[in-house]
């Protein structure tokens, strides 16, 4: 009997010690976090939580404070992750949802931002500065292509685009595009007037993005092209469907493009990975692998970009694309590389400069290796594009 009593007492004492240890494990971190939070020591708060608090800890108050610290130190992707954990337990936490909205706008993720805004009350929404017409952005681009080929004239590219929010979770982007280039070839040239054949292309592009969930978006796009060259006129129709999934530091996208381009049947399968190691746009990479099926001929194309902030309001982005880019579709099918001569390799540099709170100026330079389809000779081409985007 005495043995049983001692066993029961030992078990009770052990249970009390375990409960006390658990209380200490919660109280001490919370107390330290509160002190760091109230003092505004954001980096120390983040370091303390990362070292002492396990991932299994599910305290909304703790996640909110850590998320706020991440937001103020510029790690917006990590802040979003913390605010999302708050909202799982407290879906009516307006402040966490509002901060989630702002963090997504800081990394240009409108789909996730508008998903958060769709669940805010009207009073909170009135504090967000948005276009009363639902406009999100407007873009103008103008470019020139300079081929090192005496049978190719300079090419000219123009694009005007507008983005709008139809509903909180549905955005629509539209672009009108024009391209023109004179093609000289011995039997086409009017030697008296020095006039060759003109390659003209007028295009309309529309893309819809629907926020299915806080970190999942569906993408659909349509691209119409009216192409005239020599005595031929072609009307091409291309479509795209894709899905994008956002994680803490990596965004994943898969999509398929299909349709008829000039006289070729096209299918293109893309897998894209965007990586934000700092949780913001101070450093990012974009990797994209594509399989292009052009009337039964398969081509593998790989594109890699690296962007980083070099000065206040100034970013650089380096990019290269490898593979035969004949009729290659880029940027969710926005850019269609179906020029007379295919591009075999492309690389370049882009500079982005923020003007005020709304305007973003960009200057792009690209170097291309191309092949003349009539003479089977290789030549180089330099392209320069100037653009400006206004964010409402």
Automatic annotation (TrEMBL):
<feature type="repeat" description="TPR">
    <location>
        <begin position="60"/>
        <end position="93"/>
    </location>
</feature>
<keyword id="KW-0802">TPR repeat</keyword>
<feature type="signal peptide">
    <location>
        <begin position="1"/>
        <end position="21"/>
    </location>
</feature>
<dbReference type="InterPro" id="IPR011990">
    <property type="entry name" value="TPR-like_helical_dom_sf"/>
</dbReference>
<keyword id="KW-0732">Signal</keyword>
<dbReference type="InterPro" id="IPR019734">
    <property type="entry name" value="TPR_rpt"/>
</dbReference>
<protein>
    <submittedName>
        <fullName>Tetratricopeptide repeat protein</fullName>
    </submittedName>
</protein>
């Amino acid at each position: 009997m005495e043995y049983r009593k001692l066993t029961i007492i030992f078990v009770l004492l052990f249970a009390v010690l375990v409960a006390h240890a658990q209380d200490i494990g919660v109280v001490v971190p919370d107390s330290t976090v509160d002190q760091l939070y109230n003092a505004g020591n954001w980096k120390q708060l983040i370091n303390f939580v990362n070292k002492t608090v396990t991932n299994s800890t599910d305290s909304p108050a703790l996640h909110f404070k850590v998320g706020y610290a991440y937001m103020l130190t510029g790690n917006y992707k990590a802040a979003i992750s913390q605010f999302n954990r708050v909202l799982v337990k407290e879906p009516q936490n307006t402040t966490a949802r509002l901060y989630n909205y702002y963090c997504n706008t800081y990394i240009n993720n409108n789909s996730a931002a508008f998903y958060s805004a769709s669940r805010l009350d009207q009073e909170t929404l009135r504090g967000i500065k948005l276009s009363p017409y639902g406009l999100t952005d407007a873009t103008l681009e103008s470019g020139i292509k300079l081929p090192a080929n005496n049978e190719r004239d300079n090419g000219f590219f123009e694009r005007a685009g507008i983005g709008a929010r139809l509903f909180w979770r549905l955005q629509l982007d539209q672009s009108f595009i024009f391209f023109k280039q004179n093609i000289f070839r011995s039997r086409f040239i009017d030697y008296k007037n020095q006039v060759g054949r003109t390659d003209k292309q007028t295009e309309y592009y529309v893309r819809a993005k629907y926020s299915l969930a806080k970190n999942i978006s569906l993408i659909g796009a349509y691209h119409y092209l009216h192409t005239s060259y020599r005595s031929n006129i072609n009307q091409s129709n291309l479509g795209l469907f894709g899905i994008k999934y956002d994680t803490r530091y990596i965004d994943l996208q898969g999509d398929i493009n299909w349709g008829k381009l000039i006289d070729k049947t096209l299918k293109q399968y893309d897998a894209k990975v965007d990586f934000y190691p700092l949780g913001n746009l101070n450093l990012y990479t974009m990797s994209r692998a594509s399989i292009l099926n052009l009337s039964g001929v398969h081509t593998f194309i790989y594109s890699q970009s690296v962007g980083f902030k070099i000065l206040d309001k100034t970013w650089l982005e380096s990019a290269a694309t490898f593979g035969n880019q004949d009729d290659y579709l880029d940027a969710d099918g926005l850019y269609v590389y179906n020029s007379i001569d295919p591009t075999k390799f492309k690389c370049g540099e882009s500079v982005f400069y923020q003007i005020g709170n709304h305007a973003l100026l960009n200057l792009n330079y690209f170097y291309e290796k191309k092949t003349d389809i009539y003479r089977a000779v290789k030549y180089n081409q330099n392209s320069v594009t100037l653009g400006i985007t206004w964010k409402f």
